[in-house]
Amino acid sequence: MTTLPFGRALCAMVTPFTPDGALDLDGAAVLAERLVSGGCDGLVLNGTTGESPTTSDAEKSALIGAVRAAVGEGPALLAGVGTADTAHSAQLARQAEGAGADGLLLVSPYYSRPPQDALEEHFRAVADATGLPVMLYDIPGRTGVRIETATLLRLAEHPRVAAVKDCAYDLLGTQKLLAESDLAVYTGCDEYVLATYAIGCAGYVGTVANVVPGHFRAIVDAFDARDTERAARLQREAVPLIEAMMSSGLPGAVTAKALLSDLGLPAGPVRAPLRAASAGVTADLRKRYEALTAA
């Protein structure tokens, strides 16, 4: 990659809440500063891990403003604006631009499962709503619809479609996209960070990075330094924590908040319908975290 529109190391940041469930802007500022100082080039706000379905439009805007004030102009801030409604998504895009976002994360409309031509039209309409660059978000396991590679290749011609967050678990499709477009592809799967970076992806948008931002930054730094042995070792060392946080049957927002809270960092509760992790799950997360950070 010669062009990195949002850097290499991005975190899909949780949205901290107070104990009574209100938006915790002070906590968000503290967490954002920790992530940036830990090596994150950019932060994705109001995404899946940020519990975007349960935050209001006003809360989304306030979060962007608070994080921008905390981290300054250096790190890239991407704002999740995708909804099941094209008009609402475009409205959120304009709101995010006004609040200080550097880019937009645009997930496929969920539940309605539009065909590919309608999906493409939706993305173009939202991309045309602002002057900000767009990262499309392909996560069919949650949305129920895949952004097919052919659709992504057509959308790559749009002047503001700059990147893709790839959570489709289709390595062949990823390689085709890299070979046939100039899109910056970021894996959204923590277990794929090194594998996809090695074949030319721009970097990652990680959930586990909420708790160990420096570890994942060290993986791509080691690879860039041509220390592939160290990069591979670091990726393997992260597997137990990745598995516990991302493959335990609980959403990443739940496990990330449980571990952050256990570490005394801003996170707070999750909002219903999500439920807090059990004490046993939290203890296992802490054990794996300590093993990784002691390595």
From TrEMBL:
GO molecular function: 4-hydroxy-tetrahydrodipicolinate synthase activity
List of residues binding pyruvate: T49, V205
Record InterPro entries: Aldolase_TIM, DapA, DapA-like, Schiff_base-form_aldolases_AS, Schiff_base-form_aldolases_CS
Site (Part of a proton relay during catalysis) location in chain: T48, Y111
Tagged with keyword Amino-acid biosynthesis: yes
PROSITE patterns: DHDPS_1, DHDPS_2
Keywords: Amino-acid biosynthesis, Cytoplasm, Diaminopimelate biosynthesis, Lyase, Lysine biosynthesis, Schiff base
Gene3D superfamilies membership: Aldolase class I
Role: Catalyzes the condensation of (S)-aspartate-beta-semialdehyde [(S)-ASA] and pyruvate to 4-hydroxy-tetrahydrodipicolinate (HTPA).
Name of the protein described by the UniProt record: 4-hydroxy-tetrahydrodipicolinate synthase
Top EC category: lyase
Oligomer and partners: Homotetramer; dimer of dimers.
Domain of life: Bacteria
Family statement drawn from the similarity comment of this UniProt entry: Belongs to the DapA family.
Active site: Y137 (proton donor/acceptor), K165 (schiff-base intermediate with substrate)
Record EC number: 4.3.3.7
Primary gene name: dapA
Catalytic reactions of this protein: L-aspartate 4-semialdehyde + pyruvate = (2S,4S)-4-hydroxy-2,3,4,5-tetrahydrodipicolinate + H2O + H(+)
Species of origin: Streptomyces fragilis
Subcellular localization, as worded in the UniProt entry: Cytoplasm
Pathway: Amino-acid biosynthesis; L-lysine biosynthesis via DAP pathway; (S)-tetrahydrodipicolinate from L-aspartate: step 3/4
Lineage of the species this protein comes from: Bacteria, Bacillati, Actinomycetota, Actinomycetes, Kitasatosporales
